[in-house]
Design a protein that fits this description.
The structure is a single chain. The chain is elongated. It is 81% helix and 0% strand. It has one domain. The longest helix is centred in the middle third of the chain and has 34 residues. The termini are far apart. The protein has five helices and no strands. Keywords: Membrane, Transmembrane, Transmembrane helix.
Length: 119
């Protein structure tokens, strides 16, 4: 297993990307998806032009919102997975390595302070 981008994050990103694409396609062409749904699950007497138009408008409006939520979640999980190695690097460091890193950070911050200070 690759520790830079673990498998669970890859699976989550693939599923969220598929959900985003599907919901975006439904939002872009709601009439075809509504007709498919009605042909499978509704009776012929339930069809109404005004109701169908309302359904199409709602599918378009809420479908875009839902697809954007999936997109934001997808990007969030991708970034979370991409930063996995950096987030868990400190867990594998010894106490001596942490002290050395802290000391280097102090030296670096003092050097930047001295460089910024006007003469």
């Amino acid at each position: 297993m690759d520790e830079r981008f673990p498998l669970i994050y890859q699976i989550i990103c693939i599923v969220l990307t598929a959900l985003f694409v599907w919901s975006f396609v439904v939002a872009r062409e709601p009439r075809q998806w509504r007709r498919l749904y009605q042909s499978k699950f509704c009776k012929a007497e339930d069809f109404s032009v005004n109701r169908n138009k309302t359904i199409d408008e709602n599918l378009k409006k809420y479908g875009i919102i839902v697809s954007m939520i999936f997109l934001v979640a997808d990007v969030g999980f991708f970034l979370w997975g991409a930063s996995y190695q950096d987030r868990h690097k400190s867990d594998s460091m010894s106490a001596e390595e942490r002290l050395r890193l802290d000391e280097q950070e102090k030296i670096r911050s003092q050097a930047q302070f001295l460089l910024r200070r006007p003469n």
